[in-house]
Amino acid sequence: MVGSTQVFCGWARTRTIKAIALAGLKEVGSSKDTQVCCCHSRAIMIQSMTQSINVIVKKLSDHEVRAFVTNLSGVIVAHTARAGV
Asked: Which helix or strand (DSSP H or E) is residue 11 part of?
């Protein structure tokens, strides 16, 4: 996962990269919030064995967010079946 933050128009810039082992995923979900009838924000929530991550999504449609969450859910189910849980 790649994150980028800018503060005060370029005075401070932070870029982070996190690697999450797919076998360590416990839960994944998404949400959509609408304000003033036209300002939409989408988020993806990922819970791993060690941390919780919330990602604000800018360039994915509702369909693409659902496909992403479905794919990660499939990874969780497949890992659970392999682990015999």
From this structure: none
- What SS3 class is residue 46? strand
Q: Which of 1, 6, 12 is nearest to 68 (CA)?
A: 1
- pLDDT averaged per 10 residues in sequence order, the chain, 85 residues: 70 78 87 82 88 85 90 87 69
CB 20 within 8 A of CB 2: no
* One-letter amino acid of 11: W
Distance (Å, whole) CA 80 – CA 85 = 5
Q: How far apart are CA 1 and CA 29, in angstroms?
A: 16
Q: What is the pTM of this model?
A: 0.66
- Give the position of tokens 């036209």: 38
